[in-house]
Amino acid sequence: MRIIIEKDYEAMSKKSAEILAEVVNEKPEAVLGLATGGTPVSMYRNLIDMNKEGKIDFSKVTSVNLDEYKGLSGDHDQSYRYFMNNNLFNHINIDKKNTYVPNGLAEDIEKECSEYDKRIENLGGIDLQLLGIGNNGHIGFNEPDDFLHMSTHLTGLTEGTIEANARFFDKKEDVPTEAITMGLGGIMKAKKILLIASGENKAEIISKLVEGKITTQVPATLLQVHPNVTIVVDEAAASLLKK
Ligand code: F6R
After folding, report:
1. What is the C-alpha to C-alpha distance for residues 39 and 163, in angstroms, rounded to an integer?
2. Is 143 a catalytic residue?
3. What CATH number corresponds to the domain at position 227?
C-alpha cells in the first residue's frame, strides 16, 4: 500500500484528483469506479476545474459507481445517481450514457446485480476504483460480517451506517435500510485502487486498514492484499498511524 499524507482535506482532495487524472491521461478510455459520500466532494470539484482548464478529458471515459440505495429513484436528491450527476457528471464532458449507477428501483434486483457485474466485465474491468471508507471499515456497502460477498448484491445497512448517513437526510427514519453494492470481488479486481479519507473521526479505521489484521469484520483490511492500492489521507485521518 502506498500511503500519501496531505495537510488537510483540500490538499487531500487535490492530490487524489491528480492521481485520477493521471490514469485518464494515460488511458483516455479508462473505466473509473466511483464513490459517493462526503469525502470525494472536493476531489470531484477539483476534477471539474481540471476538466474546464483542459487538464483532463472525460469524453471517452466510462464510469461505474459502487452502490445505490434500494428504493430511491435517480431523481431523489439523496440517491447516488443524483449525487453523481450533481457533483460531477453535469459539470464535465462525460457522456452520461457511459455512466453507470445501480438501479435502486430495479424490480428484479438479482438480475440488476448480475448484469452490473457482467457490464463491468464486458468493459474490460475497472482501471481505477475510488473508495471512501466507513467508520466501521465498510467499502462500498460491504458491511462487517462473518462472510463477505464477491459479486454485486443487495445488502442491509448497519445501524452505524444508517446513523452516519442520516446527516444527509431530513431525519434518520428516511435513510433507506438496504442498498445495492458492488461486492469485494468487483472491488478487488480493479487494476488500481485509490482510497481517500479525511478527518479525525477516520483516524482509527485508517490505522486498522493499514496496520490491523485482515478480517471480514473490517472489510477494508482485505485491501492489504491488493497489489496496487494508494491511500490518500489528511494529517487528521493519519494521526493514529504508527509511522
Ligand atoms: C459511497 C460508499 C461508502 C462511503 C463511506 C464513507 O459510495 O460506497 O462506502 O465511501 O461510507 O462515506 P463518507 O465519505 O461520507 O465518510
Report:
1. 17
2. yes
3. 3.40.50.1360
